[in-house]
Amino acid sequence: MQRRTFLQQLGALGLLGACPAILPQHLAAAPSMVSVKQLPKLKGELTLYLGRGEGGLYENVLDAIKKRNPDFDLKIRRGPTAALANAIVAEAQANVRRAEVFWAVDSGAIGLLTDKGLAQPLPEDLTSQLRPEFRFPNWAPVTGRIRTLAYNTERLKASDIPDSILALAESDLSIAWAPAYASFQSFVTAMRLLIGEQKTINWLKAMNKRAKKYAGELGVVLAAERGEVDLGLANHYYTLRLKSGKPDATVDLAFTNNDAGCLVNASGIVALKQSDTAINFIRYLLTTEVQSYLASEAYEIPLIGDLAPPAGLPALQTISPPKVDLTQLANLRPTLNMMRKAGVL
Amino acid sequence: MIRWPISYPFALIVALLAILPVVVLFVLASDSVQFFDAHNLKVLYNTLLLMFMTLIGAVIIGVPLAFLTTYIQLPMQRFWIVLYIAPLAMPSYLGAFTFYAAFGPGGEIKNLIGLSTPSIDGLFGAAIIMSLYTYPFVLLTTRAALSSLDASQVYAARTLGLSLAKSLWRVVLPRIVNGIAAGALLAAMYALSDFGTPAIMGLDTFTRVIYVEYNSFGLAQAAMLSIQLLVVVGLVLFVESRIKGTQEKPSQHLLFFPKPMQLTGMFLSTAPVIILSIILPLAIFFLWLWRDGAGHFDLSIAWNSAHASILAAVVAVILALPLAFAAIAGKLGRLLERIAFVGFGVPGIVMGTALVYVGLQLPFLYQTLGLLVLAYVLRFIPLAVSSIRAKTESLDGSLVNAARVLGANRYEALRRITLPLSMRGIIAGAALVFLESMRELPATLLLGPTGFETLATYLWRVYEAGYFGRAAIPGLLLILISAIALTIMLSGEAGVKTKLTKGPSK
């Protein structure tokens, strides 16, 4: 239930960006923000499972943390978020615990671990750095993201795009997607919860006929930009990042209306072992510096204090995300089975 | 009582180790899993189709090139042969990666010269790339068959009034069919076990689906799929073992001296093969290097690759020695050697799946360099064994006997006669294992220790994340390594060259 409020608050965050008038109230409610200068130096070894590939801006954050803490030996295992979450569960079952901290791009993967009781509680003073709505006992959201349709502006007008994700399957648009990506899988899970298994399978099958598979969602957005497809399903920041690097990029964002197509999700971090280093490492990710870096460079939605949402994201109050309990997104297995059944994975 | 050769107990241990992954897969798959479903059927269909298309493509490219390089007097003959064999040394995932980036709307070709090309992906894309990188198998085996043929039968056919084309078709071709088939089956094996190419081309073959299952940690399902793939591989290996090479008395083979114009025509018609398989990947990587620079490349990645591969090479050679000696010593030894060749037919992704499970059962091995090295050793030990055997077999047994008669005990004979004389084979074997390990992708993805990126896995992550520019340095390094591998292959024994250099090792 807590996560449902989290969702609604993300919506409110959009309001915050759009209507400065209500800003002061939020400011008043916002906890004091922590700077990296106030944090203790990190020491010793820490194994981080990072649900990200090469090149992500998360790497820059980690490099900066390492540079600041010369005595800190951070071991990073990179891989697809879903794969790492599954690996952590399998490791725990075999009693071969390796990961101490897991930074996932998707709250579904985190839910999987909290459900299995693998997530360690976080200290109160850490979670209280987040806004009250975003405080969870055993994980910390790091940034927010929205599912979007990234469309080619030369091939389509905004008005050509169906405002329902289901209608997309019946359109004659060519589509790019990345079914192996954790955020996509969470989106399918949300869809399964909202409209049921059979309808989702039918949708996947219909989409599969017109969709081209990509390994990741940057690839999806690039494909839409260069006109390989009409539009792609991807998290919002890929498009914003592309446009920031290439202002004349022929791609823009569209949102569906009140369905899984505009699901709001979060990346998050869990501690899998009780240790000061793990907890302090998490503190670093919630500092003003890291959060504003992720907002301005990675175009992700910051979740602490009164940091503004990234530039270029349309006013969120025009978007109506579906009401989904994010804890249920952890139930990935039926989704994977379904995707396999539909021949999508 | 028979006295067993000293190499037997060691060879037995290695052979047992070699079948470990297969045993593990059966244990894993005995967990209640779905044996076969509709999607599975589709995967089988895709895999077989890719295999056949690769086989046909490799024959279409390889056989004419074999005729060209054997029967035609070429200027710089050796250079051309090496050039046409070169794609064999390159891992096909490099080709798949660069083709993926080069072709299609918005691909590098379009960006650079404005020429619209169709995207290369799916079944056709994978088959084209696989054919481009496996035809040298056919080229080599066909060349071997062709050069063993006696030209006098063709002359007889010509004297009796058959045209040149017809006499090639009716007199030469029937005698080289087995040679062609041997190469084609190696190409088929490669197509079955390669992971990178179908994955990048987005084709659901067994290797790709096993990776997807592994990623959702459906280890049991991955094991079931692995066993199904192994059955197909086993069938191909079985057919391959039934094919006998043609044995004719060596004599002068046909030789043509074409006019310069004809020669130019021949080169032009074969140029696309080289342009696509070698020049295009090189051009794309250099383009990225020029555009993105090299600053962001972390050299420790290259060191990781080299470090793991050196360990694999040393261990593989140490384990291969008793196997090679046992194989010479007697029947049981040959059987043990055959068993150790199991790893040769186990695709990397399958080996990875099996050893991840081993690691979870034996935590001291999990995510260690040791387990990764074990995977390399088990997969590539056949390379070392054949290299060493190629040398030791030619070693005259009477030398050892002479040493024994002169009073050396068995160990001394081994140390002072056998080992020094097999040194060249040992070094060549170690080098081959080293180079194959450097390029290995799927098992490394699954088994690499935390924080341990290799050139191949780094390239894979770059592909997954879409930051292609960063692939330049690792891509070029891998091509360089492949070139070195090629040199060693070509200076090695003929048996190593045609049979085992790359084969199903991907």
Short structural summary:
The complex is a heterodimer of chains A (345) and B (506). With 345 residues, chain A is an alpha/beta fold.
What is the arithmetic mean of pLDDT of chain A?
Answer: 83
Average pLDDT score of chain B: 85
For the report, how would you describe the main beta sheet of chain B?
none
- Quickly give the structural class of chain A: alpha/beta
Number of extended strands of chain B: 0
Question: Can you walk through the features of this model?
Answer:
The complex is a heterodimer of chains A (about 350) and B (about 500). Chain A has about 350 residues and is an alpha/beta fold. Chain A folds into two domains: about 5-145 and about 265-315, Periplasmic binding protein-like II (D-Maltodextrin-Binding Protein, domain 2, 3-Layer(aba) Sandwich); about 145-265 and about 320-340, D-Maltodextrin-Binding Protein, domain 2, CATH 3.40.190. In chain A, about 40% of the residues lie in helices and about 15% in strands. Chain A is built from 14 helices and ten strands. In chain A, strands 1, 2, 3, 4, 5, 6, 7, 8, 9 and 10 form a ten-stranded mixed beta sheet that branches. In chain A, helix 3 (about 55-70) links the parallel strand 1 (about 45-50) and strand 2. The longest helix of chain A has 17 residues, at about 1-20. Chain A is globular, with a radius of gyration of 19 Å. The model of chain A is unreliable at about 1-30 (pLDDT under 50). Chain B folds into two domains: about 1-20 and about 295-495, MetI-like (MetI-like fold, Orthogonal Bundle), CATH 1.10.3720; about 30-265, Orthogonal Bundle (MetI-like fold). Chain B has helices at about 5-30, 40-70, 75-85, 90-100, 110-115, 120-145, 150-160, 165-195, 195-200, 205-215, 220-240, 260-290, 300-330, 330-340, 340-345, 350-360, 370-395, 395-405, 410-440, 440-445, 455-465, 470-490, 495-500. Mean pLDDT of chain B is about 85; it is low at about 495-505. The interface between A and B is large, with 43 and 34 residues.
